[in-house]
Design a protein that fits this description.
alpha+beta
């Protein structure tokens, strides 16, 4: 549509007498009176510009051929000859294939035109032909430069999209790791405990099996949340964000760990204020991963969970006594946790993206501590 409008405007201006001396003129042969042929050649230099971006090679050949015949026949000067400049620029900017062939053809055509004009008695000197050729080549190169920058911008956008997609895949992988590892570990511990109770205290085994069922439902809930995030758009995105695990649900994690036989002490200090979804989710995952590791590697050992709400940071500390499994469920738990370490590494990266800090490691007394400082980022109302 824009190309058509440009061609139409140039066509109209081509027949404005006061603009006739402005344009691409090279032959300087004696002008003949206006005729239907000269009018047709003028139109042939303007109307093909409607194809200048879709068919730049066709446009250049048509406009260039009409310009050459117009100059060789000594037709009246016309502003429509500016179409040659536009056609050359468009070919440089939009032609994709056979660019060198088109450039060589255009160059050869210009040499033929210069020879023909010279034989027809054109007063134009050789340096003038060269200077005009340089102007035409500059227009082609200008278009080529625009095309190159456009291609570089497109490549940068493509690479940025690939990086974003890779980051999103990594984020989803970490979320799946956190959800599946935590809940499956809890279910393994709870089911093994239930098996032991079936022989020693059958009435208590029912509670263990109920805990396994509850843990499975909780895992399904969080997996549905992840699927909701993947499919979320518009209002669905807001709904998915509302279902995201948050700091207020840390107590559920503690209760789940206790049902798995892990003695957990939970302390929360300070005034809890609504935070951005990213902050709430990362804080929740820190506690979740720390409790998962406790159930994997220090089954039955006392674990202390501290969540402290400050004015500038949310401090989370999970400390577990002992460094290795100590119950009958240990072999199964080790099987679940084989190849571990990815959880804490991923968490450290996620906390760092929020300008926070996560430190995890053993203390001199044998306690394993996970400590995170996450900057406060209040939720927007």
């Amino acid at each position: 549509m824009r190309d058509g409008a440009f061609a139409l405007v140039l066509t109209v201006l081509a027949f404005v007498p006061t603009l006739s001396q402005i344009g691409a003129q090279i032959g300087d042969l004696s002008e003949h009176p206006p005729s239907p042929l000269s009018i047709g050649l003028t139109l042939a230099q303007t109307l093909p510009l409607a194809l200048r971006t879709r068919r730049p090679a066709v446009c250049l050949v048509a406009v260039g051929g009409a310009f050459a015949v117009h100059q060789a026949l000594g037709c009246p000067a016309t502003f429509g000859s500016v179409g040659l400049y536009a056609a050359l620029y468009s070919a440089g900017a939009h032609q994709v294939s056979f660019r060198r062939t088109l450039a060589a053809t255009a160059g050869a055509g210009y040499v033929v035109l210069a020879v023909v004009l010279h034989r027809l008695g054109s007063p134009t000197r050789f340096p003038d032909f060269v200077a005009f050729c340089v102007v035409l080549a500059a227009l082609w190169l200008l278009g080529s430069g625009v095309r190159r920058r456009r291609a570089e911008d497109a490549e940068r956008r493509r690479l940025a999209a690939e990086v974003a997609a890779a980051a999103e895949r990594a984020h989803i992988a970490r979320e799946l790791h956190d959800v599946v590892t935590h809940h499956v570990t809890a279910m393994v511990v709870q089911s093994d405990a239930a098996q032991v109770l079936l022989t020693s205290a059958p009435e208590r085994a029912v509670d263990g099996l109920t805990a396994v069922s509850d843990t499975g439902r909780r895992a399904l809930t969080e997996l549905r949340y992840l699927l909701g995030v993947l499919e979320a758009t518009g209002q669905n995105a807001s709904a998915a964000a509302d279902r995201a695990p948050a700091l207020g649900k840390v107590g559920d994690l503690v209760a789940q760990a206790r049902r798995s036989g892990q003695p957990v002490e939970f302390t929360e200090r300070g005034e809890r204020r609504p935070q951005r979804v990213e902050v709430e989710l990362v804080a929740y995952r820190v506690v979740q991963e720390a409790l998962t590791n406790a159930m994997k590697h220090a089954v039955g050992q006392r674990t202390q969970v501290l969540v402290q709400h400050g004015d500038e940071h949310i401090e989370i500390e999970v400390a577990t006594e002992g460094s290795g499994p100590s119950s009958a469920a240990a072999p199964a738990v080790r099987a679940v946790g084989r190849g571990g370490g990815r959880g804490l590494t991923g968490l450290r990266s996620r906390v760092r993206r929020l300008d926070g800090e996560l430190v995890a490691g053993p203390l001199p007394d044998g306690t394993f501590r996970v400590r995170a400082l996450i900057p406060v980022q209040p939720a927007q109302e």
